[in-house]
Amino acid sequence: MARNLHHSCNPGRIVSDLQARGYKEVDAVNKLKWGSKEPLDMFMLTFSSDEKTNKIYEVTSILRSKVEIQPLRKSKLIPQCKQCQAYGHTQSYCSKDPSCVKCAGKHHTKECRKPKEAKPKCVHCGEAHPAKYRGCTVAIELQKIKNQNAKPKRTGLPQRQSAKNPEQTKNTTEMKNQNSLPRIENREKTYAQAVSNLNKQNNVQENEEVKQTLQRILDKLNKQEALFVTLDERITKLEYSAQGAIPKTKQK
């Protein structure tokens, strides 16, 4: 990411300026502000895959403007396909039928004819919002599962128990036993309290079943993404082999 470069700069001139100085740059895209889509003074630069990483950060100026080159930040959000709107993969590895992000129809979003005043429809939950809305219940639950899987498991060390004298241990045990006895006034519960506790238990069980279902969906999506990547590479090799050509070097 090239910072402090005015948004009015022409991307083609940026590419030409860097290529003239020996950099293997192939593309420059202006960064837009999230939500309002206002242009920012930032450009995302794409270099050839054989370009040395350390050499890229030696760039200090572009088009006579002082800039700062920084690595792109990896997004922590679960990826979403712009073709089928499903989570867990991107458009490059999608082989599913298209789904509209506005009306959930079986067509590409750019082909949608939905009036602007009509309410959108989410293809995941059916609510009145676009499918890319991150506040969607499905997106929230899948993001929670992804965050939980990304957290490293901590193994706590066993706490050392301090030595106690017999009399203190005896008193502590008696106090615990007394506290563990049910109080008489709490033994009897009203019907409303019993129904409330039962509803809470049912809600917890339902939430757990939903999480398990979403986890299975996420696992399947991850397997499909890996399968799509392998299939795409094999198809590319077969196409070039049939044409007697050498595949081009991938760009990053």
Keywords for this entry:
6 strands, Alpha-Beta Plaits, alpha+beta, globular, 252 residues, 38% helix, 2 domains
The overall pLDDT average reads 77
Gyration radius from CA atoms, angstroms: 29 Å
What is the general shape?
globular
Largest sheet: 4 strands, antiparallel
SSE run: EHEEHEEEHHH
Helix vs. strand class: alpha+beta
Describe the overall structure:
This protein folds into two domains: 68 residues, Alpha-Beta Plaits; 116 residues, no CATH class. The chain is 38% helix and 10% strand. It contains five helices and six strands. The strands form two sheets. The protein has a four-stranded antiparallel beta sheet with strand order 2-3-1-6, with helices on one face. A two-stranded antiparallel sheet has the order 4-5. The radius of gyration is 29 Å and the shape is globular. About 6% of the residues have low confidence.
Task: Describe this structure in a few short sentences.
Helix content is 38%, strand content 10%. It is of the alpha+beta class.
Could you give the topology of this structure?
Elements: E1 2-3, H1 11-20, E2 25-32, E3 39-47, H2 53-56, E4 61-62, E5 65-66, E6 68-69, H3 137-150, H4 166-180, H5 191-243
Antiparallel strand pairs: 1-3, 1-6, 2-3, 4-5
Helix pairs in contact: 3-5
